[in-house]
Design goal:
6 copies of one chain form a homohexamer. With 137 residues, chain A is an alpha+beta fold. Chain A has one domain: 6-pyruvoyl tetrahydropterin synthase/QueD (Tetrahydropterin Synthase, Chain A, 2-Layer Sandwich). Chain A is built from 4 helices and 5 strands. The first copy, chain A, has a 5-stranded mixed sheet. In chain A, strand 4 and strand 5 form a beta hairpin. Strand 1 of chain E pairs antiparallel with strand 5 of chain F.
C-alpha cells in the first residue's frame, strides 16, 4: 500500500532576481520590480511530500517528528530570516527564482532521504498565488 | 529539470445549471437548487498550472507577470462579473457545470500556450468544498 | 463573565447593484461591472457573533447546534442559491450592496434572538478581500 | 474528456497511537505525546477525489449532492465525534495513524463507488501541516 | 500610541462535554454527540492579543519571541496532546466547553502578564466554524 | 446605521529590525534573527477598515473600487517589492517593526480619508501568526 505523506513548513527570506551575466538594464527589463537592488522578501510556505509503503506494524510510513526535524535542520535553519542572494552559498551564482529555490530545496532534502522513500516532491509557495512543484524528474 | 508552475486567480459570476433539451421538471429534479431560473452565483478560484523545463540562464520556466496577464485577458475579463449562461458565448448551449467551466477555461488557455509548455492543468473551485481538475486528456 | 461566541456559515447567491431611482447610465457609471443587468454572484461567508454571560452550570453561553440551526432557517434557507434582487422580498427595492445585505441579515436574526444575548454582530464577506461588520448601532 | 472532481468534508475525533504488540515503554518511545493513554484529538479535513468522464448531456461527472451524502453516510456518521480506538471497529486492532485512517476511508468509500469512477483518491489532513494521500495502489 | 499585538498558536486535545451534577440522560440530551463518554477531539487554534503602548525606542510593544514562548509554556505544554477532562486539573470539575476553555486560558495567561499590558484577549477556535472571544470583563 | 467596511490588500518587502542608537551587539541580542544585516522579508497582508454611515440611496458606505485604489496608490506602490529600511523614507530612522509599519500605514491613509469616515483601523499581518492592529488612538 503506497501512500504519500506531506509536511508543511515555512521560512521568511529576502531575495533579488538577478542574472550576473546580464546588464543592469537587461535585468531590470526582464525581472521588473523583482530586480530591486535593495531586495524584497517573502514568507515562503513549503510542502515536502514523500511516497512509499506503510509499515504494517507501526502504521507509519514516515515519522512526522523526524520529517519536521529534517526540514528544520536542512531548510529552515539554512534559509529562515536570511538574504538568499547574500547569505546562502546555494544562490551566490544561481538566481533565486521560485523555480530554482524549489530545486535547491529538493536537492538538499534528497541527500538526506533514505532509499526506501521512493518519491520526494517539494511544493514551494512564494506567495499564496504563485507556487512551483518539483519532484526531481 | 521539469517543474510545474502555478498561478491562482479568481472571478465572480452568476450561473444556472440547466440542460435545454430537458423539461423544466427534469431540470429541477436533476439539478435541484442549482436550477433556479433566476440564477445564483459563486466566487470562482482558479489555479492554472504549467509544466516544462527551467531556463538555465534566467532561472524562470514561466514569467508570472506573463501568466497572470494571460489569465486576466483570457479568463477574468471574459467571465468576471458576468452571467455565464446569458453573457458568455461559451455557455449559450453548454451547461455551465463546474466540470464544463473547467474544460472551457482549459481550451481557452491552451490556444494561447506555446508548445514548449507541455502540460497545462486547470483547477477550478466553485466553492471551498467543491473543485475540479482538468488537464486536457 | 461576558464572552462572545461566533458561528461561521455561508450561502451562494446572484445579485446586481442597482438603484431604481437612477438612470441606466447613472447606475452603470456608479456601480461599474457590479451593475451588469444579467447579474453576477458570490460565495458569501457569514460570521454571526453573540455576546453575553456563560451559564455557570452548563458552561455554555450559546448552544452551537441552536445557533447554526437558526442561521440555517433564517439566512441560508432564505438566500442560498437565490437571486437576491429577483427572489428575495428584502431586496425588491433595496440595493443588495454588501452593506445592505449585512444589515438585513442582522435584522432578520435580531428578531429571533432572546433578550439575554445583549450584543449581536454580523460579519459578511462578499469576497475574501471585501467584508463588512454591523452590530445594530 | 477525463476530469477529477473533489469534495471536502471534515470530522472531529479522538485517538491514541498505540501498537498492541509493543510494551508501554516501546509505544511511549516510538509515538511520544501521540501515545497518551487518555487520548488526544483532531479536526480531520478530508478531500475525496474521483476521476472519470464528463456526461456530455448533463455536464456532470459526479453529482456533488450524491458525493457529499455518500461521505456523510460512510465517513462522517461513522467517525465524527468518536474515539477512533474505542468506538470504531476498524481501529480495534489497527493503529489509527493518519496513514491507516486514510487507507480505511479509501476502502470504505471504494466499496460504494461505481465502476465508472475509475480513480478514487483520498487526502486526509490530521492538522493543517500534516496530511496523507492514498489512491488504492 | 496604543496598539494591539496578536500571536496565533494551536494545540490538539481530546475532551468530552459533561456536567457531573447531571444524569447521563440529561448530559446526552443537552450535549448530544459532544457527550460521547469515550471523548472526541479538536485542533484548537488560539489567538492571544495584548493592547498597550509602543516603546518609542525599540518600536516594539511586545516581543513576539517572548509572547510565543509564554503561550508555549503556559498553554501548549499544558494542553497539547492531552485529554482535557482526564489529564488537566483545570477541567476535573469544570466542563471543557469552548467558553470555559477560553476563560481558563485567559486566566492562566493573565497571571503572567505584566501590568503594562492593559488588555488581554483570547480568541479560541474549536473548529474553523466555532470560536469564542474572552477579554476578562 | 453605522457599519464597518474592510478591504484586504498585500505587499512583499524586505526589512531589518535595527535601532540606530544601539550597538551591533545590543541590536543582535534584542532582535535576534530579525537583525540580520543583510535583511529578510515578508508577504505582508493588510486589512483597512473604515466605519461610518451607509448612504441611504446608493446603499454604499465606501466604494470598494475607490478604497482598493487608495490602498494601491498610498501603500502598495510605496512598499511593494521594496526594502523598507533602504528604499522608504518613512523607515530611514524609524525601526520597521510590525507595530511601526502599521502606524505609518495608518498615518499615510488617514491623510487621504475624508472626515465622514470617522474610524480608520489597520490590521497588518507580518506572518499568518503575527499581526497588529492600530486605530489612531
Amino acid at each position: 500500500m503506497e501512500i504519500t505523506v506531506s509536511r508543511k513548513a515555512h521560512f521568511n527570506a529576502a531575495h533579488r532576481l538577478h542574472v550576473n551575466e546580464w546588464s543592469e538594464a537587461e535585468n531590470a527589463a526582464f525581472f521588473g520590480l523583482c530586480n530591486n537592488p535593495n531586495f524584497h522578501g517573502h514568507n515562503y510556505d513549503l510542502i515536502v511530500s514523500l511516497t512509499g509503503e506503510i509499515d504494517p506494524v507501526s502504521g507509519y510510513f514516515v515519522d512526522m517528528k523526524w520529517l519536521s526535524q529534517l526540514i528544520k535542520e536542512e531548510i529552515e535553519d539554512r534559509f529562515d530570516h536570511k538574504n538568499l542572494n547574500l547569505d546562502c552559498e546555494e544562490f551566490k551564482t544561481l538566481n533565486p527564482s521560485t523555480e530554482n529555490v524549489a530545486v535547491v530545496i529538493w536537492q538538499l532534502l534528497n541527500k538526506k532521504i533514505n532509499i526506501k522513500f521512493k518519491h520526494l516532491k517539494v511544493t514551494l509557495f512564494e506567495t499564496e498565488r504563485n507556487f512551483v512543484e518539483y519532484n526531481g524528474k
